[in-house]
Design goal:
Layout lengths: L2 H12 L1 H11 L4 E2 H7 L4 H13 L3 E6 L2 E6 L1 H35 L5
Antiparallel strand pairs: 1-3, 2-3
Helix pairs in contact: 1-4, 2-4
Amino acid sequence: MDSEQFLRIAKALADPRRFEILEHIASQHEVGCQRLCGCFPVRQATISHHLKELASAGLVESRREGQFVYYRTRPAVFEAYIEELRRRVVAEPAAARRSAARARVEIAANPIKA
């Protein structure tokens, strides 16, 4: 997963209403846009904007059937995001520990003489 998509996903998940919409979609196999509009106390344009952001991040995909649009989640994208998040978060402490260990070795090798 490239950094750009990683950041788009993080941004998409950070909005509370967008996350609610995503949870609602994930709780079902597929959800129509009209049905989503009836589930949340916001205008249709706001729902459309949130769906556009979720789709842009790759978290949902859409399917058109006549005049209706249906959305479903993309589990493989979630798995890739979680793996990338784990790599970034877990790798940092390990790098910091290695850096601290090197600093201790350098200090031990070059003690200050009083």
